[in-house]
Amino acid sequence: MKTLALFRHAKSDWSDARARDFDRPLNARGQRGAAAMGRFVREQGWTFEHIIASPAVRVAETIEVATKAYGRGFPVEWDRRIYLASSATLLDLLREVEGDPASVLMIGHNPGLEDLIFDLVPDDGTSPLRDIVEQKFPTATFALLEADIERWADLAEGSARLISLTRPRDLDPTLGPQLPD
Predict the structure, then answer these.
(1) Cα(95)–Cα(168) distance, rounded to whole angstroms?
(2) Could you tell me the residue ranges of all domains in the chain?
(3) What is 74-94 written as a DSSP string?
């Protein structure tokens, strides 16, 4: 059995129109969302043997804020291939994980992470959490999946169950969509 966590970066700042997409930092709401998710993961008692992340600024800042709220840092393997990757690329990266750790955390971007959930979790009506992802996989959302595999190289489409899905607004309603008055 393998555990895969997918963590989408927190809300980024769009105020500098000249900034490259890769270089966009978190905005204030994103910092609050990343901190809330870091505390939540700590409260669940979740730890991960291997962490792989996009090196984009907003991902690095999400990790920094979340691990501070978690209360400890973790070694991260930075992989540029995660930046704006397709589901197929993310699946290939997971199949390449060496040493077959029991748990992997991947931190990155949409639409790749969302599409990866769609590819790994069967669309057979048995996963209400998958149905929620079909509506939206917002920034700073944390998904936990399980796959009945011995090796990461065996991870295949339709081989996982989505066992937990937590959005920032589930932890703090002020982190949800900003609705007009």
Answers:
(1) 29
(2) 2-13+30-174
(3) ---EE-GGGTT--HHHHHHHH
Query: Which pTM does this prediction carry?
Result: 0.95
Give the burial class of 75: count Cβ atoms within 10 A of its Cβ; 0-12 exposed, 13-18 middle, 19 or more buried.
exposed
The yes or no reply on domain 2-13+30-174 and CATH 3.40.50.1240 is yes
Distance CA 22, CA 43 (A): 31
Q: Which two tokens stand for residue 177?
A: 């969509």
pLDDT in the model for residue 113: 98
How far apart CA 161 and CA 122 sit, in angstroms, is: 8
**Distance in angstroms (rounded) separating the CA atoms of residues 101 and 172:** 32
- What are the tens digits of pLDDT across the range 41-91? 999 999 999 999 999 999 999 999 999 999 999 999 999 999 999 999 999
